[in-house]
């Protein structure tokens, strides 16, 4: 209530509805307060957005090319790495330095240079590995049991598929051994009692292209190859020698129409005739491939190479070994599995074509090469296996002298 005396003194006319005036004043002040709050909130959001964007730019894994403005936008698809300097002088040292644009490129650089340093076998570590492995695999040895023979399996035995996943409350899928299968099995493993000095395991990575490693591979005492990669067109890089070559049943289905017709059978026989000694068939990996795989044993009449059936129990033994050591649940790749067979029967193991990455860096003058998934076809990368994890294990085996990985050019 406005005092009448005060109103007269300051020439203010009293209002009859002071309560109404109070409400209007309150409403007006509340509106002003709300506008102030909204304004502060808007400024705060804009400020946070601005600084977050700048922080993200500063914390991004990409490094800006030397000499570019801070405000310059990076290209949409920057190269993983580039030369530190484009100076034309041949004596300019920084031309030999990399400017890593993404962290992945720096990792590849370190991997390559580590693997290209001088290597020597470590017999102590090799013996420690064999001791640990033999404690687990006392009943299944690589030389005798990596394939099915008439000595390690009998008619009516049940074979558990190697790629079955254990499901609580459900029985594992199995195959009952038939007389027909027994008739197609050898009496003993071709590796039974064997011991080789130098072995090579040839993987499928496109890093083999232009490597000129063929001659070095062919000098090995025993050569393991993966998934029937063609020999003649790539002999300079991957060699010609073959002692054990794996063949996934999916190849029989895809390339040879499940051997349904005579021409398919003829094409199959001709395709595998380029390999010597043995073809290793994982007929009991998954159930859907079994019939096509076993059919190849029935229709193939050649003597060289021989068709051998992988022992699912031995494959699963290797897989379980690494799963117990927190490897993961993904099935092992063929190359990773063959490496374990080689570690059991070879004194010195060399790996070629094991590179799970899509790029490779040249030391000089700083060029980046795309690496195809396979050196012999255009197959896209699959995620059936944990290639990166396998590479990490093999890299450490290389470090500890169990085997040598080759990722550069061979002299």
Return the CATH class of the largest domain.
Alpha Beta
Q: Over the alpha carbons, how many angstroms does the gyration radius reach?
A: 34 Å
- Poorly predicted spans: 1-27, 50-77
- Given the helix and strand composition, which structural class is it? alpha/beta
Helix content: 25-40%
- What would CATH call the homologous superfamily of the largest domain? Glycosyl transferase family 29
User: Which range does the strand content fall in?
Assistant: 5-15%
In spatial order, strands of the major sheet run: 9-8-7-6-5-10-13
How many β-strands, per DSSP? 13
Which sequence of SSEs, written as H and E, runs from N to C?
HHEEHHHEEHEHEHEHHEHEHHEEEHE
The largest sheet, given as strand count, sense and whether it forms a barrel, is:
7 strands, parallel
Q: How is the CATH topology of the largest domain named?
A: sialyltransferase cstii, chain A
What gap, in angstroms, lies between the N and C termini? 104 Å
* CATH architecture name of the largest domain: Alpha-Beta Complex
Task: Tell me, briefly, the overall form.
Answer: globular
Number of domains: 2
Transmembrane segments: 32-53
GO cellular component, one term: Golgi membrane
Family: Belongs to the glycosyltransferase 29 family.
Main location: Golgi
């Amino acid at each position: 209530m406005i005092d009448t005396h005060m109103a007269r003194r300051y020439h203010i006319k009293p209002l009859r509805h002071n309560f109404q005036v109070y409400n209007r004043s309150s409403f007006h002040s509340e509106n002003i307060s709300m506008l102030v709050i909204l304004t502060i909130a808007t400024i705060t959001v804009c400020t946070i957005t601005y600084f977050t964007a700048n922080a993200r730019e500063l914390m991004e894994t990409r490094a800006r090319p030397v000499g570019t403005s801070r405000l310059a936008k990076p290209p949409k698809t920057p190269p993983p790495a580039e030369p530190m300097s484009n100076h034309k002088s041949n004596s300019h040292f920084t031309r030999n330095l990399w400017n890593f644009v993404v962290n992945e490129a720096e990792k590849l650089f370190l991997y390559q240079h580590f693997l290209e340093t001088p290597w020597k076998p470590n017999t102590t570590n090799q013996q420690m590995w064999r001791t640990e492995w033999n404690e687990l695999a006392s009943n299944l040895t690589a030389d005798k049991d990596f394939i099915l023979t008439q000595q390690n399996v009998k008619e009516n035995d049940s074979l558990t598929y190697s790629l079955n996943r254990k499901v609580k409350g459900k029985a594992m899928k199995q195959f009952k051994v038939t007389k027909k299968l027994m008739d197609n099995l050898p009496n003993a493993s071709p590796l039974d009692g064997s011991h080789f000095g130098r072995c090579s395991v040839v993987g499928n990575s496109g890093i083999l292209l232009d490597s000129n490693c063929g001659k070095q591979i062919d000098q090995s005492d025993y050569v393991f190859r993966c998934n029937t990669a063609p020999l003649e067109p790539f002999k300079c890089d991957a060699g010609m020698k073959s002692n054990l070559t794996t063949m996934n049943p999916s190849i029989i289905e895809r390339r040879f129409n499940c051997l349904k017709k005579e021409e398919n059978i003829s094409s199959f026989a001709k395709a595998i005739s380029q390999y010597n000694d043995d073809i290793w068939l994982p007929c009991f990996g998954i159930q859907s491939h079994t019939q096509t795989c076993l059919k190849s044993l029935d229709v193939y009449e050649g003597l060289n190479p021989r068709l051998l059936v992988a022992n699912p129990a031995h494959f699963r033994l290797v897989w379980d070994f690494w799963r117990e050591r927190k490897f993961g649940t993904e099935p092992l790749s063929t190359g990773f599995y063959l490496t374990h067979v080689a570690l059991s029967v070879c004194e010195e193991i060399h790996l070629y074509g094991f590179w799970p990455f899509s790029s490779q860096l040249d030391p000089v003058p700083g060029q980046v090469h795309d690496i195809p998934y396979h050196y012999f076809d255009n197959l896209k990368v699959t995620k059936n296996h944990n290639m990166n994890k396998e590479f990490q294990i093999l890299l450490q085996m290389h470090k500890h002298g169990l085997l040598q990985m080759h990722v550069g050019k061979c002299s």
